[in-house]
Every structure is written in structure tokens, then in C-alpha cells.
Description:
Blueprint: H1 9-12, E1 17-22, E2 27-30, H2 32-37, H3 59-69, E3 73-79, E4 82-93, E5 96-107
Antiparallel strand pairs: 1-2, 1-5, 3-4, 4-5
Amino acid sequence: MISRPSLPVWLCAAPFAVTVCDRDGIIQYMNDRACEIFAADGGEKLVGSNLLDCHPEPARSRLRRMLEEGTANIYTIEKDGVRKLIYQVPWHDDGAYSGFVELSLEIPWEMPHFVRS
Length: 117
């Protein structure tokens, strides 16, 4: 586990990927799982780099718009036989838009869906 004394251990070691960037797209934080997923691209060494540099078009343009407008982007993907929910949402500090948090969670192929009222 990567040492991050100011953050809760459960967040560092969570079984899903967490990546946080500032409003300019500079990666501020990656938890252990995010570092594992992006190990071939540099893993923890990506912290401090611009996430726009990590994405080809058209994803780069979409991310640039998201950063400028502070809009969310939520979708599912399939890659190498694994389904994931990608949840990219703005985060705020004292009410000021400060960047994005991306959660990447593996989801099972067969997953129950409940409608609650």
C-alpha cells in the first residue's frame, strides 16, 4: 500500500480506483487500485501530471469540456472481459469548484437491480 498519512486507510486500500484532479486537470491523488490499473502508464508517478495527456481524442476534448464546465460524466465500459462503472464528478472545496473525482468500479455481469419506493 502506498503511504498517504493524511487520508483514511480504507480509501487508500479500497477495492475500486479513485483518481482526483484539480480544475486544470493535474492529478492530485490516486489510490492504490488506481495506481495498479495504470501501472503500465506510470502508476503513482502520474500524480502531478495532466490527465489530458493520458487520453486520446475524442476523450481529451470531452475531458477538457468537463473541466471547463464542471459537468459530470457517468458511463459503463467493457475492457478485457471486465465491466466497469466510470463515475467522474466535480468536487468542491468550500463551495468552489476544485476539479474532478473519478471512481472506477468493477461491476458483475449479472447484477440485481432493485426498485425501491
